[in-house]
Amino acid sequence: xxxxxxxxxxxxxxxxxxxxxxxxxxxxxxxxxxxxxxxxxxxxxxxxxxxxxxxxxxxxxxxxxxxxxxxxxxxxxxxxxxxxxxxxxxxxxxxxxxxxxxxxxxxxxxxxxxxxxxxxxxxxxxxxxxxxxxxxxxxxxxxxxxxxxxxxxxxxxxxxxxxxxxxxxxxxxxxxxxxxxxxxxxxxxxxxxxxxxxxxxxxxxxxxxxxxxxxxxxxxxxxxxxxxxxxxxxxxxxxxxxxxxxxxxxxxxxxxxxxxxxxxxxxxxxxxxxxxxxxxxxxxxxxxxxxxxxxxxxxxxxxxxxxxxxxxxxxxxxxxxxxxxxxxxxxxxxxxxxxxxxxxxxxxxxxxxx
Length: 354
Fold this sequence. Notes:
Blueprint: H1 2-29, H2 34-45, H3 70-79, H4 86-98, H5 112-147, H6 152-166, H7 169-180, H8 204-242, H9 245-252, H10 257-275, H11 277-285, H12 290-295, H13 301-311, H14 314-342
Helix pairs in contact: 1-14, 5-8, 5-11, 6-8, 7-8, 8-10, 9-10, 10-14, 11-14, 13-14
């Protein structure tokens, strides 16, 4: 297993290189780049974009109707690095990444690593608690549904899960806000934000209560889709294992039902659930949080990435892409290691495979 882990770690570098190269080319040739964004801002406000980060604060008025002069256009291209060929810009980006430098935002005037670090607590809070709830509820419920397959409980919960899976998270979040956050009904939870304005004056216990009070509705919104799909996956996996020959053989040997479930069915059925772990984590932590962050006014990484795409802020786009890709590769490796830990018979080393 150690050789396999080492191989996977070595292969991460070319995988990262190819993914970054493909996305770099696609993003660079897309219309509406940062230079075009800066020109549009300059023409809108009729000011000269001479600030290093194009915040236009100290800029001077100019003849917007006449457009930008060639000198100003060349200055803009140099400011954003577009005076260099595409391959040079790509290698410069890779050199920065090798030095753990994600670059500086074009429009926010901060380092990309600093921006990601500032948004990380929101994303970790949303994704972490949602992921915990998803697995704590979905796996036991899926196992119990497998045991009671075909019963009234199974049919009723399947109907509820189908409804939960079909409802978009955005719609469910709006419903929760309307019902419980000062809409037409009850005002039990705050409308937005991760903490209250007076949190600094609260006690330690009060800060914890305030934190979870604000998190309740966003976490419930984010949990809905993943909870339903994982329950179905767990149930299907356990039902498939329950009817295999080795289970009948274990019962024939006189093993108790607990021994059969823990020692045989669970160990094999849970592998399918673990296979979905990397995608679930990436989806919940990043992709799934965008609408939740917008709806509940939570400033996390997903919202930062969305704004960067809208503004064509390339350093932020590629910094978040690097983070997502690296996290996904590491999680897939961790998933393989969990396979081997749960069932040592599973090996990924072809040279040692039986």
